[in-house]
């Protein structure tokens, strides 16, 4: 068996939420109010991975600043993950397109791509740049 890229351990009692062990961290997962749902964790994983990749990509060009990534899951059909990268500064259309292309190659994007359509928009002040 190869070395795993990641691992998780889920524990659940006869009633109540799931205690999800992720390395040294524990997250409470629930379909109610006790914690995020499994689908929220999935969209959160895509948002976090995208934000870290966007930061790395933009830092290469010297454009380091705060940014926000919003991911929504639309039931469809087709089932669609919509990723919005919100920037407090304006990129050129070419730079925004390069950033969107870079986000298509993130680990989580590539794992989800076989099951979901993923659309990416890079935005500044409500204007889509790519």
How would you sum up this structure, described in words?
The protein is an alpha+beta fold and 130 residues long. Helices cover 31% and strands 30% of the residues. The protein contains three helices and seven strands. It has helices at residues 38-60, 93-103, 107-112, and strands at residues 9-12, 18-22, 25-29, 68-74, 80-87, 117-124, 127-128. A four-stranded mixed β-sheet has the order 4-5-6-7, covered by helices on one side. It has a three-stranded antiparallel β-sheet with strand order 1-2-3, with no helix packed on it. A hairpin with a 2-residue loop joins strand 6 (117-124) and strand 7 (127-128). The N and C termini lie far apart (42 Å).
Strand order of the largest sheet: 4-5-6-7
The SSE string, one letter per element, is EEEHEEHHEE
Biggest β-sheet description: 4 strands, mixed
Proportion of β residues? 25-35%
Low-confidence stretches: none
């Amino acid at each position: 068996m190869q070395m795993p890229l990641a691992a998780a351990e889920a524990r659940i009692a006869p009633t109540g939420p799931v205690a999800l062990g992720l390395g040294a961290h524990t997250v409470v997962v629930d379909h109610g109010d006790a914690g995020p749902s499994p689908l929220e964790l999935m969209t959160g994983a895509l948002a976090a991975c995208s934000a870290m990749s966007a930061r790395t990509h933009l830092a290469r060009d010297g454009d380091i600043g705060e940014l926000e990534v919003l991911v929504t899951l639309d039931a469809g059909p087709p089932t669609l993950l919509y990723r919005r990268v919100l920037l407090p500064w304006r990129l050129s259309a070419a730079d925004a397109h390069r950033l969107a292309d870079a986000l298509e190659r993130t680990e989580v994007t590539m794992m989800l791509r076989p099951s979901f359509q993923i659309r990416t928009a890079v935005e500044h002040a409500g204007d889509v740049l790519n």
